[in-house]
Every structure is written in structure tokens, then in C-alpha cells.
Amino acid sequence: xxxxxxxxxxxxxxxxxxxxxxxxxxxxxxxxxxxxxxxxxxxxxxxxxxxxxxxxxxxxxxxxxxxxxxxxxxxxxxxxxxxxxxxxxxxxxxxxxxxxxxxxxxxxxxxxxxxxxxxxxxxxxxxxxxxxxxxxxxxxxxxxxxxxxxxxxxxxxxxxxxxxxxxxxxxxxxxxxxxxxxxxxxxxxxxxxxxxxxxxxxxxxxxxxxxxxxxxxxxxxxxxxxxxxxxxxxxxxxxxxxxxxxxxxxxxxxxxxxxxxxxxxxxxxxxxxxxxxxxxxxxxxxxxxxxxxxxxxxxxxxxxxxxxxxxxxxxxxxxxxxxxxxxxxxxxxxxxxxxxxxxxxxxxxxxxxxxxxxxxxxxxxxxxxxxxxxxxxxxxxxxxxxxxxxxxxxxxxxxxxx
Length: 402
Known about the structure:
Elements: H1 9-20, H2 22-34, H3 43-55, E1 59-61, E2 71-76, E3 89-94, H4 108-125, E4 132-137, H5 146-152, E5 161-163, E6 166-168, E7 179-188, H6 204-218, E8 226-234, E9 245-254, H7 257-278, E10 281-291, H8 298-310, H9 329-333, E11 338-339, E12 342-344, H10 355-361, H11 364-386, H12 388-401
Parallel strand pairs: 3-4, 3-5, 5-11, 6-12
Antiparallel strand pairs: 1-2, 2-4, 7-9, 7-10, 8-9
Helix pairs in contact: 1-4, 1-11, 2-4, 3-4, 4-11, 6-7, 8-11, 8-12
């Protein structure tokens, strides 16, 4: 495997170029942070990244997959001409959508900035790399499933490995993520005056409460690798009206695809049983995209850890299943070997989607952490492009997950 320390002259040059790009990282992060755009509306962020990548010699295709804010930026290394036909294509993944109301409290502005800077550091320091380097702009991670739609359109068909880094409250190279789906439940009964004629009504709220309690009881028998959580989105219209319609939304998550489907089926059974008990009807609809579980590439993770060690970037002590969520990169990991390291930009209590995290995204500590991850990510991409043994190990490990 390629020597992973900064005595390696090319990696030293990559790290130096990344250091020179510190101002670009800060500038891109701040520009996107100050102009938050929610899923599929990221016109400013996508245009900014494309402009920066063109200036670094990338050819850019946009829109892709019918998505106006998705793009693929491509640059072949000058060593690709003499490389074998199996020279890899490695993609840096950029995200740049914001959250509603709270803006970039998940740090996607930093994800975009580091993806650009890692690509730029590689092409400046080592333009003779074999193979192809891509930066793929993926909109709408926050519930819109941009990567899912891009996978379906074949955007990643020729990609051999994909990598991105994500701001967090911890630094961890290898982590898994839950599959997730949202189910929407509508219980329908019969309205009646709650004082004068309660016996003529059919209480949809009773069905909803029974359902909620059934799910709560079911949780005791769930494996640790699953999560079910939900809310009432409509509980009735007035206290003196027997509720005719009650609506509820639930997220269902699991680490394993098969168990994921099993838990979904059990939640559906809870809803159907509750409706029958209350004399109501229930309709169940899936909303949004289904995100698959994320399976990290362990060979890529080992290379990333070695590169972190080479720049003296520490990793926190967390297992790969502690404090995890869900993302559409899970779907990508089903079709392409993928890595999604996290890095701490604030304190342990500064968690994603919070006001504290929002402040950390543009903090000095956040910038320093993003710069370190840019270096480690760029060096890992260089490893994948230039080390046939690492790429072969990555492919073999990926096949075992299928």
C-alpha cells in the first residue's frame, strides 16, 4: 500500500497545496453559509462550486439526472494516457443543501468547501495522477434523496470509489448509518358531538393513541440496531368533536436491510391492529425517499486513518454504531465503495441541527478541523488513484458486502 506519511513527497505537496487553499475553504464555506438554500434550490452553491472547479481545469456537466443543481466535474490526470485500462475513477462528493429555518446547521457548506479544496490540492500537487478525478455535486441530502435520483440515472455507474467528510461533534473515520423511511398514517373514524352524541362517533384519536402505545411496547422487543420514532401531526379539530381524522408520521430505521423490512412490517401491523380495535380505517403511505443503510469501505477507512496519523489529526474513541443517523450516501454505498468520515468542529454538546452547531460551522475550530480533513481526504484519494493494491482491496471488500 502507498506509504501514508508526509515523508512521501507527493503527499507532502498535496498537504502544502491544501494549506494554501485555507482561504478558499473559508471563503466558500462562508459564501454558502450566508446564502442557505434548501433541497433542490441550491442554485448559488452549485454555481459557485462549478465556477471554482472550472478554474482548476475540471470540465463540468450540469444539470445531471434531470436535477438543475446537480453536477459532475471531471478531470483526467495527465498520467492517465499511459495508465492501464483499469485506471480508477474516484469521486469526491459535495453536499450543499441547507436545513429549513436553521440554515447550515448540518455543515453542508463545509462539505462543499472541503470537496473542492481536496480536488484542487490534488490537481495542483499531482496533475500526473493516473485515472480520473471527479467532484460530484449532490443536492438535497436533507430528505430529498438527491443521490438516490442520481444513482437511478446512472451518474455513478463508472465510479470506482467515493468519499466525503462530514462535520460532527466527534471525529470518527468509519461509521455505519441506519436505513430510514418515513411512513404517514391516516386514521379515519366518524365525527360526532362529544357531549351529546359520543356513542354515534368513531374516535380516530383512540386509534392513533393505541397505535402509538403499540409501537412503544414493540420497541422493547426490537434489536438494538433499529429505531422507531414518530409524532401526531393532526389530532382532531376541537375538544367537543369526536376526532374523525388523525394523522401521524413515523421514521423507521435499521442497520440491516432485511431487518429494516421486518420492522416496517411490524409497525404496519401495529397500525392495522389499532384501527381495528377502535373501529376505524387506516391508510399508510410512504413519504419521500428510502435511504439505504450505509456500509463503509474498510480498506478506504484504513488508508484515511493512516493519512490522518501522518498529519497528526487524532480520532475520537467511538464504535461505528454509536450516535449514528441516516443519509442518502447509504444508497451510494450499495453501488460504489464509499467512505464518510466525520470530524468534530465544536464541543461534544454541539450536535448537528442545533444552534450551537450552526455557530461551530463558521468557527475557527471548525475551519481548522475542515482543513485537516481536506488534507487527509485528498491524500486518500491520491492513494486510491495511484495504489493498485489499495484499489483492489477496496473492490474485493465491496463485493463481500453484496
